[in-house]
Structures are given as C-alpha cells and as structure tokens.
C-alpha cells in the first residue's frame, strides 16, 4: 500500500504546509474582524478545511494512510458537522449580528499582534526540541489558540463564545498534528466525541437562554453574583 | 476476576442509567442509583483487597490510588443517591420538576458517576481527559436542571469556563505526548510515562505541566479559574451538588496527583511545588475574601469547597508519603462532610424556599435534627475533632513544617482561621435565635439516614482509619513515588 502511494518531495511539502498554516491563521484572524454571525460560522468552516488539508499534507508526506484518513475525518467534523449544527442554532435564533463588541476591531487586531508575539515566545522551547518545518509552524497554532480565547472573553453573543472555544480546540488539534502525528487514535476519537457533545450542550443551553432571557446577549447573565 | 472488578464500577452506574432511561423515574428505579453506588463501593473494596489489575486491553487499570478514589466516589454517591428519591419527590410536589426531567436526572446522575469511575480507572492521560470532559458535558444539564434564569446562567458559565480550562489541559497532554514521542515513547500511559519521565525535555515539560495544573485545576475549583464553582454548586439539585463538590473536584485533582509524579521526575520537585503553592494560597485568599460578606448559604458551602481544594493542593505541594496520605484522607473526609452539608442545605432550601442566610433563623428550635446535621457537618469542615478533617489538616501542617515549608503553612492556616470565623458567624445566625413562626420542618427517614451515616463515617475515620490505613499508605506511596 505504502509503496504505491504518491510521494511528496520536500520542495512541494514545505510550501503546501505553509499554505495550509497560513489559511488557518488568516481564517482565525478574520473572526476578529467580522461581526456577522453567519460569516463567522463560515470562517470557522474554512478553518476546518485548512486544518484537514494540513493533516492530509502531513499524512501524504509521511506516507501514512491512517493519518490521511484521520485528516478527512477531522475535516468532516470541523468543516461539516460542527458548522452545520451552529448554522441550525443561528437560524433558530434569528438575530444574526454580533452586538457592539467590548473591544473594537482595530484594537482587537492590535491585541492579536501582541498575542502572536507571545505565542512565538512561548513556542521557542517546543521548536528547539525538534526543529522541523512542521514544528516551526507551532507558533501559528498557539496564536490562534490565544485569539480564540480573546474572542471568548470579549464577544457578547453566545454563538461567538462557542466559536472562540472551537478556535481554541482547532488550534490544539493543529498543535497535536504538527508536533507528533496526533495523539493516539482512541484518544483522538474521544476528543472529537467530547467536542461534538460540548457543541450540542451549547446549542441546548442557547435555546434555553433564549426562552429564559429573550435573547443570547450574554450581558443579560447577571443574576448570579456575590 | 480482576477484570470484572475493574469493569463493575463503570458498568453498575451505566446499567442503572439504562434502567432509568427505559422505565422512567418511579418508586423502584429511584433506588437504582443507590444500588449502583453500593455495587461500585463493593467493587472498589474488592479492588483494594485484590491489588492491581488491568482490563480492556490495558485501557483501564486499577492500582491502590484508583481503588481509593473509587471508594471515595462510591461512598459519596451512596449518600447522594440515597437522598435523591426524597429530594425529587419534594421538588415534584412543589412543582419545580416534572416526570421527564426526573427520568433525565436518573440517567444523567448515573452517567456522571460512571464517567468519574472511568476517570480514575483510566490507564492513560488521554483517556482520563476524555472522562473528565465527559463529566462536564453530563453535569451541564444537571446544573441547569431547574430551567430557571439562574440555573441556565450557571450552566452556561460552568460549561464555558470548564471547557476552556480542560482545553488548556488538553494542550498540556499534547505537549507531554510530543516530549514523550521525542524520546521514542509514543504513549500517554501513566506507568510508561513515569518510567521514561527522567528523559523528557524539561523545556517542553515546564509548559505542559503549567497547562495541566491550570487546566485540571479549573475543574478542581482552584483559583484563578474557580468562578464557575459557586454558581454551579448553588444552582444544581442538592444531591448533584454533593456529588460535584464531594467527589468531582477530587477526581479532577486526582489528575494533578498523577501528573505530579511525572512532572517531579522530569523537572525535580521544586517546579510543581511552587505552582501548587501559588494556586493553593490564591484559592484560600479568594475564599476568605468572599466568605466574610456572603449572603447565600449554598454559595457559602461552595466557597468552602474552594478552601478545601486549596488545602489539598497545599498538601500535594509538600509531597512525600506523610503529606499525601493526609491529602487522600482529607479528600474522603471533605467528600463526606460536604455531602452531608449540601444534602441538608438542599432540604433546608426546599422547606424555607430561599437560600438566603437571613431567611433562616432559629433553625435549632424548628428542626433539631436538620440543624444538628448542619452544625456537625460545619464543625467537621472547620477541622474540629473527632472528625477526620482534623487529623488530615494536622497531618498536612506537620508534614509542611518538617519539609521546611513553614513560611507557606503559617499564612495558609491564618487564612483557614479567618474562613472558620466567617463560617462560624454565618452558622450562628442561621442556627440560633428564636424560631420563626413557620413551624417544624419534617425530614424523610432516608435523608436522615444519609446525613447521620455520613457524619458517623467522618467521625469514625477521625478516630481510626482502621483497615483503610494500609490502602492509604500504598496509595500515597504511588502518588509520591520518585523513580
């Protein structure tokens, strides 16, 4: 099986890897810029495709059929099923725009630049351990992780928070595939299952929130305090 | 035999969940949870006696530490599940719940117990993560059980904060896997990792350990990511609060105990110790600040959980068999005391209709049994003899001073005293004084039995750990092992 597989020369592997990583980063950053919730979900789906492409490129380069299959599975979940679920929640909700964010777009992008530098600094020990083209892209994954966290803290719509969480999760998956060829398969399956269930939980809670508060603006959540 | 004993703690609750799913919540299935918990406890004791074993192609493994944690899960689940039928019956009578929600309660509580059992039986860091995240998903609906604005808000905060925390832990696991793969060990298995821990790259491991301690610390209710805990614990149904506070926090902390073994071998004991000392002191400070002006007795208990998790983190920071044995005893004692308190607080909430401290006056005169259980439970949590928390806190303090960590122990116990004073003042307001005209509060026999059994067990443990002693020592040796 492996002998018949197409081999990827390094001259093609590195640019393809960088292209996938670039697309991953760009879609992550664009989430900061867009306010239309439908567009944010589309960006998330695009990022899922970039992630799947990255894993497939790694798989083809390492001539690992299982890795290619895992990449396709990750793509189906993160570019297909999860965006589908979120779009359904969005249609059920009606309201399609992020309300005025706590931090405006220009500041958000500046913060993202600072976060990127932070990610680069933190990733140094990881690159030093094994400086391959793949591990050198780890700072990109960590940048998206921090951007996801930033989206989660500063956005006020329930769906934007979910996207923030999923950006973090995409970034962790990317780190796993860049550093080693992913965590063991049983664990990867468990993780995908948990993420899927978490999104379903978010969806149910959003519906309940709409019933109880009349909207999904999280500023309404102020019943509980000391 | 050992395979069956390892599968039983996960299997019994799943069977009970299936029973509730098929037959709904009725007079018989209401007791399935308690039966499953008793079965879990029996299997845990069996595992403690027969010694280590593995099942399911090595995915599950039980050693003394797993067996001990299973005993804690079994004991607290037994208390919480015995009080559940009466609790839900009262909720139904008051119109706060309905048959479909009760069926869901039956299924979810059992799935919750099964996920916790799976977490402590996992042989690898990856499976443990999956199980801990599964507890978040299952309990989200239990926290939001009442469907009110407050419950929905608490459930949302709970899922968001815990998912983010646990995502950090996942990144930590990915990095551990990276460091391990670099030395040719493509595995996340505990024993394999600790055998090779000395060769793992310290630069990568430092980042990984920080992420793992912060991540699992979130789920364990440790500062700085503790904000979900008071909301979730005060909104969940009382038996679920007992389970969450009594064992879920400790199960999450169990992950830190396992991580510490690997971290200490890779980085030396100093790194994790410093990290744990910081989160422990931060947790104690947060509790002390927020308890003084607390107005809600369920949140009071929730903050007290943050305090005790802080003490447990402190004991773990000290390390060594003596301190870790005290930590494990503290986990069991806190599980018992806190479940008694949450169950009595739930009963009180149903009778009074409010969880405000000032809504409760003269409880000792109105409901002597309930007030007695509440008062004794509080005394247990304040670490007074004869309860086991006295012995374990003393053990932690002694181990700390002999390890030369007096500069941490002293401020920590000053904070504990402040917390004790705040709790005592609030309790005095609730328990003493003239009885309000509302009259006596009747207590179902099953709830009374659970409360008395919990307190008695906590007191007996304080006098003598008896047959548990050997298990405690073996489990502490595993948690404190240095290869």
Please name the defining characteristics of this protein.
heterodimer; A: 226 residues; mainly alpha; 7 helices; globular; B: 483 residues; two-stranded antiparallel sheet; 2 strands; NADH dehydrogenase (ubiquinone) activity (chain B); Hydrogenase (chain B)
Give a summary of the structure in a few sentences.
Chain B: One of its GO terms (cellular component) is plasma membrane. Chain A has helices at 10-33, 37-61, 65-93, 105-129, 138-154, 158-179, 185-213. Chain A is mainly α and 226 residues long.
Task: Give a description of the structure.
Chain B: One of its GO terms (cellular component) is plasma membrane. The complex is a heterodimer of chains A (226) and B (483). The mean pLDDT of chain A is 87. With 226 residues, chain A is mostly helical. The two termini of chain B are 30 Å apart. The mean pLDDT of chain B is 91. At the A-B interface, helix 4, helix 5, helix 6 and helix 7 of A face helix 5, helix 6, helix 8 and helix 9 of B.
Described by the principal axes of the CA atoms, the overall outline of chain A is: globular
Overall tally of structural domains of chain B: 1
Model regions low in confidence, pLDDT < 50 over at least 5 residues of chain B: none
Mean pLDDT of chain B: 91
Which protein chains are joined by the largest interface, and how many residues does each one contribute?
Answer: A-B, 42 and 55 residues
Low-pLDDT stretches of chain A: none
What is the number of helical segments of chain A per DSSP (H or I, 4+ residues)?
Answer: 7
Oligomer: heterodimer
> What is the number of helical segments of chain B per DSSP (H or I, 4+ residues)?
19
Average per-residue pLDDT of chain A, rounded, comes to 87
Number of domains as seen in the coordinates of chain A: 1
Structural class of chain A: mainly alpha
Instruction: Estimate the global geometry of chain B from the Cα principal axes.
Output: globular
**What is Rg of chain A?**
18 Å
The profile of the biggest β sheet of chain A is: none
Protein name (chain B): Hydrogenase
Keywords (chain B): Cell membrane, Membrane, Oxidoreductase, Transmembrane, Transmembrane helix
GO molecular function (chain B): NADH dehydrogenase (ubiquinone) activity; oxidoreductase activity
Subcellular location (chain B): Cell membrane; Membrane
């Amino acid at each position: 099986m492996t002998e018949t597989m197409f081999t990827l020369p390094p001259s093609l592997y590195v640019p393809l890897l960088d292209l996938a990583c670039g697309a991953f980063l760009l879609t992550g950053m664009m989430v900061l810029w867009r306010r239309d919730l439908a567009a944010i979900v589309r960006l998330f789906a695009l990022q899922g495709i970039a992630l799947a492409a990255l894993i497939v490129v790694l798989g083809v380069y390492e001539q690992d059929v299982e890795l290619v299959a895992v990449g396709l599975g990750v793509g189906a979940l993160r570019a297909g099923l999860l965006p589908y679920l979120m779009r359904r929640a969005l249609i059920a909700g009606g309201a399609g725009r992020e309300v005025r964010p706590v931090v405006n777009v220009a500041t958000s992008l500046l913060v993202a630049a600072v976060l990127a530098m932070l990610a680069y600094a933190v990733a140094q020990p990881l690159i030093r351990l094994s400086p391959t083209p793949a591990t050198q892209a780890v700072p990109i994954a960590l940048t998206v992780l921090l951007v996801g966290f930033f989206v989660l803290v500063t956005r006020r719509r329930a769906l934007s928070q979910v996207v923030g969480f999923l950006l973090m999760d995409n970034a962790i998956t990317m780190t796993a595939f860049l550093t080693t060829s992913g965590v063991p398969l049983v664990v990867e399956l468990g993780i995908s299952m948990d993420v899927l269930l978490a999104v379903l939980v978010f969806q149910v809670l959003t519906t309940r929130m709409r019933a109880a508060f009349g909207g999904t603006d999280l500023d309404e959540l102020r019943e509980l305090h000391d | 035999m050992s395979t069956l004993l390892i599968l039983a703690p996960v299997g019994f609750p799943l069977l009970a969940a299936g029973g509730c799913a098929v037959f709904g919540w009725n007079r018989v299935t209401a007791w399935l949870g308690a039966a499953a918990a008793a079965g879990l406890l029996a299997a845990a004791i069996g595992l403690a006696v027969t010694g280590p074993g593995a099942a399911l192609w090595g995915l599950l493994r039980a050693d003394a530490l797993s067996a001990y944690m299973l005993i804690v899960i079994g004991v607290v689940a037994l208390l919480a599940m015995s009080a559940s039928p009466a609790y839900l019956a009262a909720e139904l009578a008051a119109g706060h719940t309905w048959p479909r929600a009760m069926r869901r309660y039956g299924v979810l509580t059992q799935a919750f117990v099964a996920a916790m059992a799976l977490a402590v039986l996992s042989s690898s860091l990856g499976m443990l993560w999956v199980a801990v995240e599964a507890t978040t998903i299952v309990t989200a609906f239990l926290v939001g059980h009442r469907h009110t604005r407050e419950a929905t808000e608490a459930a949302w905060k709970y899922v968001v904060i815990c998912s983010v925390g646990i995502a950090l832990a996942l990144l930590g696991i990915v990095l551990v896997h990276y460091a391990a793969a670099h030395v040719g060990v493509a595995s996340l298995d505990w024993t394999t990792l600790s055998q090779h821990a000395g060769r793992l790259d310290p630069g990568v491991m430092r980042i990984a350990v920080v992420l793992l301690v912060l991540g699992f610390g979130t789920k364990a209710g440790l500062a700085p990511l503790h904000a979900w805990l008071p909301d979730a614990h005060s909104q969940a149904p009382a038996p679920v609060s007992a389970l969450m506070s009594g064992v879920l926090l400790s199960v999450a902390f169990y992950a830190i105990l396992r991580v510490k073994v690997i971290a200490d071998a890779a980085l030396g004991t100093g790194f994790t110790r410093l990290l744990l000392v910081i989160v422990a002191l931060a947790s104690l400070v947060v509790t002390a600040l927020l308890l003084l002006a607390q107005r809600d007795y369920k949140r009071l208990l929730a903050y007290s959980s943050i305090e005790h998790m802080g003490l447990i983190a402190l004991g773990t920071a000290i390390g060594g068999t003596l301190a870790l044995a005290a930590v494990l005893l503290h986990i069991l004692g806190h599980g018992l005391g806190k479940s008694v308190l949450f169950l009595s607080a739930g009963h009180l909430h149903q009778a009074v209709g409010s969880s405000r401290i000032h809504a409760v006056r003269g409880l000792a005169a109105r409901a002597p049994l309930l007030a007695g259980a509440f008062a004794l439970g509080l005394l247990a949590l304040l670490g007074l003899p004869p309860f086991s928390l006295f012995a374990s806190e003393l053990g932690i303090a002694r181990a700390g001073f002999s390890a030369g960590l007096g500069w941490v122990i002293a401020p920590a116990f000053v904070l504990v005293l402040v917390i004790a004073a705040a709790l005592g003042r609030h309790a005095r307001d609730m328990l003493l004084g003239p009885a309000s005209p509302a009259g006596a509060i009747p207590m179902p026999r099953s709830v009374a039995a659970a409360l008395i059994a919990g307190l008695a067990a906590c007191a007996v443990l304080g006098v003598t750990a008896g047959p548990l002693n050997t298990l405690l020592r073996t489990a502490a040796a595993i948690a404190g092992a240095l290869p």
